[in-house]
Amino acid sequence: MSGVPAAVTIVVHAPEETTALAAWLGEALVAGDLLLLEGGLGAGKTAFVQGLAKGLGLTGAVKSPTYTLVHEHRASLPGRPGLGHLDLYRMPEGRDLGDLGLDDLLARGAVAVEWGGRLARREPDALRVAIEGPDPDAPPGRRRIAFAGRGARARALVARVEAYAARTASP
């Protein structure tokens, strides 16, 4: 599906809220889902991926693969996908990213890519997750997390985030 992407923005107030939101989303992930994360250093991208792993039922430690580029977390529950975790921060601009093994990772599980904007043109149907913060004028844990997606799966994941927002909204 093309055209205007489905989109929603949520404000969280603590790292635990970021993790809880991502865990809710992670519960719905299937093999082949691709999430492209953007945000400055310290924005909470890795905390978000830790939440995805929790939602997938993964039990191992999730750390940013800044120096190794790729970590693969194998599924620990039958019938659930694993999680590929990429960090493109140290990848030179203009480098061909085709040799990262992305297709193989997607065949085995969901994939979250920190600094994923570099793949946005190659993967237009991925769910884009933009994390804004920290803001020096706001409380330390406050983040704005914007989700946008064009493809059918990305739109379904945006709808899941909208359901989370409705579920957790204050009356």
At a glance:
This protein is an alpha/beta fold and 171 residues long. It has one domain (6-94, 106-168): Rossmann fold.
Kindly describe this structure.
28% of the residues lie in helices and 24% in strands. By secondary structure, it is of the alpha/beta class. The protein has one domain: 3-Layer(aba) Sandwich (Rossmann fold), CATH 3.40.50.300. A seven-stranded mixed sheet has the order 1-7-6-2-5-4-3, sandwiched between helices. The longest helix is centred in the last third of the chain and has 17 residues, at 152-168. It starts with 5 loop residues before the first strand and ends with a helix. The model has no long low-confidence stretch (mean pLDDT 88).
Produce the secondary structure layout.
Elements: E1 6-12, H1 15-26, E2 34-38, H2 45-56, E3 70-73, E4 82-87, H3 102-108, E5 109-114, E6 127-132, E7 143-149, H4 152-168
Parallel strand pairs: 2-5, 2-6, 4-5
Antiparallel strand pairs: 1-7, 3-4, 6-7
Helix pairs in contact: 1-2
Structure characteristics:
single chain, 171 residues, alpha/beta, Rossmann fold, seven-stranded mixed β-sheet, 4 helices, 7 strands, globular
Indicate the overall shape: globular
Listing every helix as H and every strand as E from the N terminus to the C terminus, the arrangement reads: EHEHEEHEEEH
Low-confidence stretches: none
Instruction: Summarize model confidence as the mean pLDDT.
Output: 88
From the alpha carbons, calculate the radius of gyration and give it in angstroms. Answer: 15 Å
